Amino acid sequence: MQNMTTGNPVKLIVKFTIPLLIGNIFQQMYSISDIIIVGRLIGINALAALGVSAPIFALLVFASIGFTNGLTVITAQSFGAKDYAKLRRSVTASIILCAAFVIAASAITLLSMDIMFEIMNVPEELKKDAGIFTSVICSGTIMIVFFNLLSSFMRALGDSKTPLYFLIFATMLNVAFNFVFIKYLGLGIAGSALGTISAMFVSVICCLVYIPKNFPLLLPKKRDWKPNWEFYKQHLAIAFPMALQFSILSISMAITQSVCNSFGPIAIAGFISAMRVEQIAVQPMVSLGLTMSTFVAQNYGAKLISRIRRGVFKASMISVSLSIFLALMMFAFSESLIKIFIEEENFEIMDKVLYFATSYIKISILFYFPLGQIFIYRNALQGMGNAVIPLISSIVELLMRTFAAVFLAATFGYIGMCFASPIAWIGGGTVTSIGYFVMIKRIRNLRMRKKPVIIPYSTI
């Protein structure tokens, strides 16, 4: 456990971020290993099918991450305030609410899958494989959700290393399972989904064995399971907007994917390969943002507002440096990385895939600065219990990405579509940064008047 309310903020932030970064990279390896194995062992069409189903998979994953991170904001605040009874009640409330979330998310996804494929303009030749992958993933949603919840509990108490170890182990299992299910058992694209779910299952078991022995503060007592609807509402007031926020981001990416689908399987393969390379590249900024959620939540619980301001400022400056460095690395090595995903003897097809992939990357790297600031300010706001401004930011991103993907693609083709994410980052970054400074100013004014620092959502 790590108390982040004392000590040098920069050292604490960096120390907490490094394990998160390694863990997030390994988490990305789940989907990346799937793409590499599918692209090389099955072929371009299977890779494209995986690509068109990716937005639905991402919707499940991102919604669960947003929901579980939102639930554990109160857990982290209770830990910072040293209110351990409330912390235990937060654990039970989170478990109960996650169980309900799993049932609803799985049912909605399965029932609406065919409709989503139609909306996303999925080519007919890809629908069968995409449907198989999505159905298998839905059957294992419970593993995805509860692994994220258990990891969030540990991070709320300041431990970013232990979830990393479980994730590394699970990622290696995922690769092994994929090889066995696809290459040796001949399960095709279903083997890719089954490998992911099986590895997640092992991760959940590891967490359930480890937490009782090493995190006794997280162990609820019998009385902590007593239903408290008002307390559930407090959790949902943060978790639901965060889940909705992450879902909106996934929906906006699905819109971009649907536009990309109209350019054919080769463009889809190039775009999905570029997106996976970029997801790895931006993980340092993502991890830094996640650190700020825990840092801000603990210090907010301890009412150390000045410390929050110093930590967020330092993190913002680190993010600026990271955005420049990562853009240079992507410009230099992106083509070599993309070739890892594809095994294609036809050089003409390979060149076309590389063209579509590198075209997107050369545009997106110019806008990593606003993307990095989104992660810092969005997570800082969520750490203070404000999920409304990040939600508004996500809606702005959705609108701007949709406009760019639809209208710019109609005018400039594939290149126009590549500007969708950068334009969305500018809009989202503007909203979150302004929202953060407005909230901090309001809190400082209330403190000067010697009033409570917790601001109702309706006043933000």
From the alpha-carbon coordinates, what is the Rg to the nearest angstrom?
Answer: 22 Å
The quaternary state of the protein chains shown equals single chain
* Number of DSSP-assigned strands: 0
Biggest beta-sheet profile: none
Parts with pLDDT < 50 across at least 5 consecutive residues: 451-460
N-to-C terminal Cα separation, in Å? Answer: 32 Å
What is the ordering of alpha helices and beta strands?
HHHHHHHHHHHHHHHH
- State the domain count: 1
> Globular, elongated, flat, extended or rod-shaped: what is the shape?
globular
Question: Average pLDDT, to the nearest integer?
Answer: 82
Write the layout of secondary structure elements.
Layout: H1 9-41, H2 44-80, H3 84-119, H4 124-139, H5 141-156, H6 162-184, H7 189-214, H8 229-261, H9 265-281, H10 283-301, H11 305-338, H12 347-364, H13 368-383, H14 388-412, H15 414-417, H16 420-448
